[in-house]
Fold this protein.
Amino acid sequence: MRQKPLVTPWLRLATAVLALMACAVVLAEEKKGGKPFKIIDAECEVASSEVSATGLFVCQYVCNDTDHTKVAVVYNTSGAGQCRTPIKKKIRQYIK
């Protein structure tokens, strides 16, 4: 009686094709690149606050980096009713 192989040739072929596709995606991402950036620590001051229609408390901040990045922080409850200020955030700053 002949035994069937555990891994069929079709399964091997499908695995090889998937591995090649994964390598192609990784290489495409590396070539794609993008704008160079650096991560900086910035201090942000509160600009405005509001309670959303769903009851979330939203604080809008403006940071002291060169681009004056805007950051929003959402809290689950409006119980505090007050935004913490200043806050420290890590910001991606693109190199020009």
Remarks:
- The chain is about 25% helix and 40% strand.
- Strands lie at 37-51, 57-63, 70-75, 87-94.
- The two ends are 71 Å apart (CA to CA).
